[in-house]
Structures are given as C-alpha cells and as structure tokens.
C-alpha cells in the first residue's frame, strides 16, 4: 500500500516536543497533510496552542515530561481516547546536557540516559496496541548523527542516540507482524534552540565539516521525518541521515 492509497483523513499522530524546533515543524507538516496531531510540550503549551489555532479541531496539546515516564500510558490513552485511534508516533523530544565525561556529575549523566530511554520505551509500549490497529502505522525516533560518529562532551546524549538505533531495529522486527514500521531519523546540526548556544567559531567549524556547508533547517528535517512516518512504506529498521553530509 503506498501513501496515496493509505490517505490521511482521520489518521492521528502523536509528536513529542511539538512546542518548538524540529517537533513543531513535524507537527505542522503532518497537519498540512491532513492528519490530526497530538503535540506534547513540557513548558511551551501556548506554542502548541498556536498550532491548534491554525488547524482548528485537529490539534490536541498535551503535557508530557520525559522525566515522568510513568505518565506515558495515561498520555497515550488520553490521545488515543480523544480521537479513538493512534496511527503514528514521532518521538522527537529529548533531554540534552553536554560536558566532558571526566567532569560530569554522575547523576546528571545518568539523568540524560534515563529520561530519554525510559520515556521512549514507555511511550512505545503504551502505543503498540493502538498502532497495531492503525492505518500505515509507524514509529519514528528522532536520533542524531552524534549517535553514529560521536561528539566531544556528548557521551551521555550520544549513547542515547546510538541506543535509539538498536531499539528501533529490534522493535521493527517485533512489530512487523502487526504491520508497524519503526525507523530512525538522524539529523546533523540544525538551527534550533538546542544549537543556539554554540559559539560562532564552533558553528563555522561544524558548517565547514558539513559537506553542504551549513546547518539544516527545521523544515528540511521535518520533511525527512514525515517521509519516514508517512511515505516510506517499505522502510523499517532504517536510519535516515539528514545531516548535510556531516557524517560522510
Ligand atoms: N537541533 C539539532 O541540531 C539536532 C541535531 C540532531 C538531533 N536533534 C534531535 O532533534 C530533536 C528535537 O531537537 P530540537 O533541536 O528541535 O530541540 P529544541 O528546539 O530544544 O526543542 C525541544 C523540544 O523538546 C521538548 N522537551 C525538552 N525537554 C523535555 C523534557 N524533559 N520533557 C518533555 N519535553 C521536553 C521541548 O518542550 P518545551 O519547549 O515545551 O519545554 C521542545 O518541544 C531531539 O531529539 C534532538 O536530540 C537535534
């Protein structure tokens, strides 16, 4: 079944971290395609509310904190219960904290691992029964090029992003019998709040090391995520690099 045959009317996506950056871009593009979108926020509820104003009746803003994975099941039930279905799960929100391992506070280091991985597993687990009943169902994990090639000061974050690949590939095999695809998007450096604090000199070095010579935009990364979620009906367990060639 290709994406046109599947259609989008009435289908429901849950996008985490939809208040800003890449998640907001993904939510907007899914709405443009006619899906209904539940967008999670931690502090930016009013920003998800803006999306809702642009697509009346098709956006459900929902609070979710990665630090509270025990609330994942209630979140999924709230979303799927609201619309009676859940077809697509885009796990985009992430906790980032940098710092060289030698100086890292062990508590902070493990917090990055735990909050990201626990919430991922809990959300997916809660969503599986709904996705199994969905149309063109899929899970997209937003990983990172850093999970493949590493970055100084990012041992915890890069571990999470590398784990996303093993998680997705195993899950792809587990859920294939139910027709649920599972893929990873691995962006390079993108213009968002997450990268805003990178000093100018370092930004230039990263741009120079990127084959396309620049950071990516939210719209470009969102297009790649929506491709995996909606169009890539013969892709599962795939890792799509959207990094301008930074990892080449
Ligand atoms: N930007 C890059 O260069 C880049 C590169 C590779 C991969 N990525 C990945 O792309 C994804 C999105 O990144 P971004 O750059 O768009 O980030 P961003 O602009 O900093 O936005 C982060 C989003 O995640 C939410 N969030 C942050 N901490 C959270 C928490 N503890 N619990 C729940 N939600 C939380 C934020 O919600 P509130 O605003 O409501 O708090 C916001 O919606 C992440 O998985 C990131 O690792 C980014």
From TrEMBL:
InterPro entries on file: NAD(P)-bd_dom_sf, SDR_fam
Membrane-traversing stretches: none
Q: Which domain of life is it from?
A: Bacteria
Question: What are the GO MF terms of this UniProt record?
Answer: oxidoreductase activity, acting on the CH-OH group of donors, NAD or NADP as acceptor
* Keyword annotations: Oxidoreductase
A GO BP entry is:
fatty acid elongation
Similarity comment: family membership: Belongs to the short-chain dehydrogenases/reductases (SDR) family.
Q: What is this protein called?
A: SDR family oxidoreductase
Tell me the lineage of the source organism: Bacteria, Bacillati, Actinomycetota, Actinomycetes, Pseudonocardiales
């Amino acid at each position: 079944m290709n994406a046109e045959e599947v259609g989008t009317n009435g289908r429901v996506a849950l996008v985490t971290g939809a208040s800003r950056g890449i998640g907001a871009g993904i939510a907007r593009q899914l709405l443009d395609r006619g899906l209904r979108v539940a967008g999670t926020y931690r502090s930016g509820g009013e920003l998800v509310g803006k999306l809702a104003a642009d697509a009346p009746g098709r956006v459900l803003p929902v609070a979710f904190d990665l630090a509270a994975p025990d609330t994942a099941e209630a979140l999924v039930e709230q979303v799927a219960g609201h619309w009676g279905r859940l077809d697509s799960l885009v796990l985009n929100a992430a906790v980032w904290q940098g710092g060289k391992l030698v100086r890292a506070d062990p508590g902070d280091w493990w917090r990055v691992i735990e909050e990201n991985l626990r919430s991922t597993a809990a959300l997916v687990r809660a969503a599986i029964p709904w996705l199994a009943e969905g149309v063109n169902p899929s899970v997209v994990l937003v990983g990172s090029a850093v999970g493949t090639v590493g970055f100084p000061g990012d041992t915890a974050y890069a571990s999470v992003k590398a784990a996303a690949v093993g998680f997705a590939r195993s899950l792809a095999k587990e859920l294939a019998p139910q027709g649920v695809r599972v893929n990873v998007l691995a962006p390079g450096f993108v213009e968002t709040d997450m990268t805003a604090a990178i000093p100018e000199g370092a930004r230039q070095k990263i741009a120079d090391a990127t084959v396309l010579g620049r950071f990516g935009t939210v719209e470009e990364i969102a297009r790649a995520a929506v491709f995996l979620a909606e169009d890539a009906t013969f892709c599962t367990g795939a890792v799509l690099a959207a990094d301008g060639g930074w990892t080449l």
